[in-house]
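In the laboratory, one determines a bound structure by crystallizing the protein with its ligand and collecting diffraction data. In a computational setting the workflow is compressed into a single prediction: the sequence and the ligand go in, and a structural description comes out. We illustrate the idea with beta-D-fucopyranose.
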Amino acid sequence: MPLTFLWMDGRGPGRRQEERPARWSAPENDKALAPLPNRSRNTLTLPPGAVLMPAFPFPPDFIFGCAAASYQIEGAHDADGKGPSIWDAFCRRPGAILNGDSGDTACDHYHRWEQDLDMIAALGLDAYRFSVAWPRILPEGTGRVNEAGLDFYERLVDGMLARGIKPVLTLYHWDLPLALEEKHGGWRSRVTAEAFAEYARLVAERLGDRVPYWTTFNEMPVFAELGYRAGIHAPGLKLDEKGVRTVIHNILLAHGLGVQALRAALPAQSKIGVVHNPWACVPFVENDACIKAARQRWEYRNSWYLDPMFKGSYPGGQIEELGAAMPEIRDGDMRAIHQPLDFLGLNIYSSQAVVEEDGTERAYEKDFPSTDMGWHITPDVLYWALRFAHDLYAPPELLITENGCAFDGQVNAEGRVEDYARLEYMRGYLRGVQRAVSEGLPAKGYFAWSILDNFEWSFGYARRFGIVHVNFETQQRTLKESAKWYSHVAKNRGM
Ligand code: FCB
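The predicted complex, in structure-token form:
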């Protein structure tokens, strides 16, 4: 049964809601953010040089970024000494990927990165969240270093800095070196956790002076559950409950060892965090009882991952529920996993439930508006996830590290991709972030998933998430209308 424990029933302990900090407001005397004058008389007389204040403003240092991941865009799967990853192998398994697609070429970003960075810079985006392919750096997962792999990411990072783009680096976005899977059982083994720390150190030593944001893992629940329980992501295994919990424990351990390695190698001002994809919900109505109930459901369903990292223990009640399926925990493991973090990244596409006052989770009906993935369009979810994450774990910073939608837009006769559904999706979700910011929550950035249409895992190229269209035959990039709109939002610091 896929995703069992993400959707498991039961309740966790509640928590008192912390006091909300003061509202953010535009700096005084900032002419660029002048309020609309003479609104009552319905006339428009702006002071010279003034620009209308956006209805939904963001602070000047808010990060408007875009995101992608190595296997989904790079291609060049065997170039310059790269070793194979579990995804290279999984894609060759008949029937694993829709249409038999693979990331062999993908967006050919490995060769076209300069053009892609030019595009990000021209859009006026502040940051680019990318991931490093571990098998480019360590082709066998550990031991022999492939300098050409480190050189590639060095060029990429320097290219970002030269264009004024902040690099936001993810160490693991699912492309484990195949050798670690074949020799040691991948995340079934603690050897992989130790290998991860070695890999983290290597990348930090090479790029540490230039990358401000570091994340260990992208979405632990997805690659653990889909890769090791449901068998629909690499490495395609169907383990039992204890097996999956062991995988999760090893990944958490790798995170902790990785953070320690990063702290030892990075300059003090570097920010280190992790990216989680929370099970997310919204309260049925905005009263105290519903909000409290929704927060309890949120906590219950995310605490298996977040409690160890932020509190140093698995949630007690759920340990009991698991019984004999509890993984082996060695002395010192929980201490290693519990490392201070500078930020928590949240990847959120949809809300999974509407929660009533008594904690009942209501599912969305089938014909509720949704994207090509069948994921429901629920813009308020970003606000509630930021608020609950803050209430429950209070990381110093929160980032929306992924948000976006799959809609199949093609280039029309005028050369345009009129993806207004995506534009409206982003507008709605960004309002949720703006609400969080305006209430003083430490939401510091938003990253559109994705800069490019790309290889969407088991769906191959059949789902398009990009704000930029990619013709996979010619590798031609075309800005979609959503990209032009998002560029405007980023440049104007608001909507
Ligand atoms: C997230 C993944 C990302 C992409 C989006 C659509 O789960 O992190 O790689 O596939 O979903």
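Residues 62-492 form a domain with the TIM Barrel fold (CATH 3.20.20.80). Keep in mind that any predicted model is a hypothesis to be tested, not a measurement.
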